[in-house]
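Re: export button greyed out
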Amino acid sequence: MIKLLNVSKRYDDIIALKDVTLQFNEGELIVLHGVSGSGKSSILSLIAAISKPTNGEVVVDGDTISMLPDHFASVYRRDNIGFIFQRYNLIPSLNVSENIIIPLIPLNLTQDEMMQKLEYVMKTFNIEHKRDVMVKKLSGGEQQRVAIARANVNNPKIILADEPTANLDKKLSLEFIEVIKELKSQNRTIVIATHDPLFFDLECVDRFVKLENGIVVS
Amino acid sequence: MILTPEIVTIEIINAIFVVFATITFVISLRIVLLWENDSYSPLQYKLQLQSYLAATIIKFILYIKILLFIFFVYTLDNIATLLPGAMCGAGVVNATVYGTPLLFLKIINLYLFAYWIVLHNQDMHTKHQKYIRLKFILFIVVYFLFMSEIVLETLMFYNIDILKVVDCCGSIFKTTDGSYLSSILSISDAIMLKLFYALYGLMIVVFFFKNRYIFSILNLLFVIVALISLITFFGTYIYELPTHHCPFCLLQRDYNYIGYLLYILLFLGTFNGLVLGFIDFDINTQVKKYKFALFFNGIYIVIVSYYVMSYFLKNGVWL
Amino acid sequence: MKRFNFYLLEYAVSYIFRYKSKNLFVFTILTSLIFILGSVFFLAESIKNELHFSVDGVGDIIVQNTKAGMHTTLDDTVVEKILDMQGVSNVESRVWGYYNFSQNNIHFLLLGVDEFEVHNNPLIDKVLENVELNDSSMIVSSGIKKLLEKSYYDKYFNFILEDGSTVQVQIIALLNEIIDFEANDMIIMKKELAQKIFGFENTMVSDLIIKVGNPKEIPMVAYKIQEKFPNTQVLTKEDIVASYEHVFNYKSGIFLTLFIVGFLTFFMIVYDKASGLSSEEKKEIGILKALGWRIDDILQAKLYEGFLLSMGAYLLGIGIALAYVYLLGAPFLRELFIAPNALTQDFRFSFTLDYETLFLLFLLSVPIYIAATIVPSWRVATQDADEVMR
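Workaround output, generated via the alternate export path:
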């Protein structure tokens, strides 16, 4: 369960979020929508403990993650969060499998454990056949699948996606939505920040949260 | 004044240590004075980040320090060939008034730096970093000791006179002149040995009762007794010479460099034992530390006893 | 103890190769520094060892005569008196010196031997077992043979005496065919012949080699000799060894001091290079953090990176230095340690691996490199992952 309590976030002179209070329950699929700059991405990065709020608290499953020192925040992120970035943020000079295992490297797993997790997500997201291909040589859709695989490799409870369909055509966007539906059926909590109208009339979405200038509007 | 390449190397690395330790010292001061656990201010954030730098530097210093200590000992042996009268490092240490305090300080600093790192690892496991202030106050103290060590070392190298004759270990570790050292060395072997083995036996007993403070004190006593008994008793069996009491000659090739192994074992064993008294570990780590202490100290005992027993078995008599 | 994280190591290796250009520059500089420094040390060590070897063959005490502060000849009546001293087990009187081969302004080392004497250097005895010298024959080493051949002397050589007359001496054997040792180039001949060539009276010798029965008594005996013959210079083996070591340490020390400057510059370069991250690198680190890498994890990866680079440079530098000194004979560098002499061109150093020197070079490369990367690595590891979001 994710709770944002009176959260404000300020970057230098820009106020991204103003006194936001939200609660997301486990297993819900939430869509944050609003124009760019409305604060959607900031909420995601707060939930992921990538950034800390200027005021207020972020509580996840009872832990006040906003107060965690860096090394605990990183561990929390590693164990609980799967993040799909807007521009995927894959490492172009590495191949597919190398990119996917990045979140696992610091965990010091055995080779078997590593391979097991890797194979599972590659199969699930249908990118197995490209395992040794360098990421910069992949198509947009394939790159997205790698990003999704990477986000899922450590079996996180929470999936966060920032404008996932921004660079995709309709066909691939629909494929993505199928993936989301599948993930939801695994009882993960999913928060998607988007202004893609394709999401607006999905039945599987539990909540829509509209943001405007850092304030929750609906 | 002596200027071998070994000494120049040591001084170069000392210079690097001084620069980095001072950076860490400044960071330590700031953290001790300004740290606020629950604050979100940019200052606190900066301090948080700087504490990582401090920890990294301290780890670096420790690891290199260990290598450098071995190298230092090697260098002492090396200089011995240039000093008339010296046959091993003991002569060099005695050549100036700085030698002996330097050696003690180096050993103490090794323990202190290692302790800092263990404390740091514990601290990083706690969500609110409960040891943060303690850590850095400790470092401030260690900083002064460390700087003293480097100053002493430089003074020692600067003041060694290759024209002055020095005593060799035979006369330094004599038991007959009236010095402080000789009175320690002339404590009867029987008493020393009884203490030595008894302390270890007590350690095993205390392990079952899990009293970490007593265990820690036992280890402190053990390292002292072990060193004395090494000089007065066990060493003579390693050298197979009843009058050879030197702790440095053990490090030479003639004796298969056994000295390095013995001292490392002693350090690892007693350090793990000592640290139990200073930090409240969780039960698993505690047990591990007890076991390490008993293990390393145990092997030390086995090795020194082996030399004695094998001499007796080979020759049918004690020395 | 935790299991070693190979995946992290693998990542560090891949990182080094993916961001090659910056690392290559630093790697090359470090390798070069180690190479030069290593060569100097290996060379010095080798020469020291050669010296030890040759000094070992010389007895325990050398006695030389001085006149007006300069080395001069000794009268061998002194031998009896020294033999009488307590503790002395043998006295060998040597006749040796340098003959100026003025055509090339080269000096030959002439060693006079006597087959009835006990020599301190067992190699000499071995030589005499195999060859019989007479009043006009000599044994030369290969370097000298080559030189003589250049001046068209093939089977003999005419030595010019003090009074201008010449004496012809036959070359009856080559030194390195009898003994294995790649000696300093020299000529061995009968003592009387050497005395004749140098213009010595037949009781005059160059110096005395004294063997003392109990090594512990060497200083005492040396003292007594000095007392009895105040004009002589009495040197014990240890004195000689120490003085050579001193010179070598001094020369290597100078190099090292020069290198401090080099290393300082190196330190700054490394610091600079490590701090200057390309935007791609910055992005990569940001991604790592966003994916859950702790600051400690990134620092560890950076440490592996630094260690691998410096270790690699160290090993490569050492390897090249070893090849340079022991395979090539260290051209150019040797001029600094041995006076350039046509005879020593072919001198090959025997291979000795001194662990202490290797340790020393290690301490001068890896810790210094890692020290230079500590602050830049920390900066990198603590950068804001937030940037990645934009």
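The helical segments of chain A are 40-47, 70-80, 96-100, 111-124, 140-152, 170-185. The button fix ships in the next patch.
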